[in-house]
Specification:
alpha/beta, Rossmann fold, six-stranded mixed β-sheet, 29% helix, 22% strand, binds adenosine-5'-triphosphate, binds magnesium ion, Energy-coupling factor ABC transporter ATP-binding protein, nucleotide-binding, ECF_ABC_transporter_ATP-bd, ATP-binding
Length: 273
């Protein structure tokens, strides 16, 4: 079992910045869920600050995420990435809170007030691995992730190669990341994130750019992780392999429950004119 926080909306909103984009959220702290072993998450509302009114990009939302594998599905522009990004502080709620914790005994961390600790706890995998592979070679990229935990340069290189080996990538250790295939790059990006051993992994459409074989491989890898996983996906087969699925539509969570029922709900919803 995993565990989570809960958030309830409130009227008071404040502005926050995320990667240069200004977003506004409205939430207020909710109650905390019961005991659990691993991760936790909660979300509130988010709205753009573009005009005096601002458009809602995620309506007031209360969630307690404690299952090991949670999938998030829904139409383009419905708010899935916003929800995912709230979980590690890439998007901050402007009122209320989003909280995570490593396990039932661990203290809750607030994504706004405990940003660095939250980002150590919650790894984030982007759709495009190019967004997170910053070093010239595969081994250097993983070594960069290990800089906090492994101090010596030689030890860090050895640990990086060991990590690559775990993902069947050690033969690519010294290859330029630019020469890797899309599947290899996504696998490397996931390896780099997992090298830090986060308690929670949030992945935003990690298989969208991949062919069938690689998306299956990445899907199998993600679903088999010991970490808590929150995966946003348009791959309904992958979504159905989760323990719980959220359907997001028009900035709201409109279904929350059994993955197969969620896929049916979304399929029927999408067929409506
Ligand atoms: N920082 C921002 N500023 C302005 N609008 C935003 C911001 N972030 C998201 N939006 C808008 O909020 C809506 C939801 O965006 P979000 O990225 O969460 O959708 P999504 O469900 O992930 O879509 P997709 O499936 O296309 O990735 C979109 O209309 C988007 O343009
Ligand atoms: Mg998205």
């Amino acid at each position: 079992m995993h565990d989570a926080a809960v958030v309830v909306p409130s009227a008071d909103a404040a502005s926050t910045r995320t990667g240069g984009d200004r977003t506004r959220a409205a939430t207020r702290p909710g109650t905390t869920a019961g005991p659990a072993a691993a991760a936790a998450a909660a979300a509130g509302a988010a709205s753009t600050d573009a005009g005096s009114e601002g458009a809602t990009i995620l309506s007031p939302t209360t969630l307690s995420l404690s299952e090991r594998r949670i999938s998030v599905i829904g139409a383009n522009g419905s708010g899935k990435s916003t929800l995912a990004r709230l979980l590690n502080g890439l998007v901050e709620p402007t009122a209320g809170s989003v909280r995570v914790r490593a396990d039932a005994e661990a203290p809750w961390l607030d994504t706004v007030h405990d940003g660095p600790a939250v980002r150590r706890l919650v790894g984030f995998v982007f759709t495009d691995p190019g967004a997170q592979l910053v070093m010239p070679t595969a081994a250097e990229d993983v070594a960069l992730s290990l800089r906090r935990t492994v101090k010596g340069k030689r030890e860090r290189r050895a640990a990086a190669v060991e990590t690559l080996d775990r993902f069947g990538l050690s033969h690519l250790a010294d290859r330029s990341v630019h020469t890797l295939s899309g599947g290899q790059r996504q696998l490397l990006a996931i390896a780099s994130v997992l090298a830090t051993d986060p308690a929670i992994l949030v992945a935003d459409e990690p298989t969208t750019l991949l062919d069938l074989r690689n998306s299956r491989m990445i899907g199998d890898l993600l679903m088999g992780l010991p970490q808590q996983l929150v995966v946003v996906t348009h791959d309904l087969g992958l979504a159905a392999r989760a323990d719980r699925t959220l359907v997001v539509d028009d900035a709201r969570v409109v279904f929350d429950g059994d993955p197969r029922d969620a896929v049916d709900f979304y399929t029927e919803m999408s067929a409506r004119p």
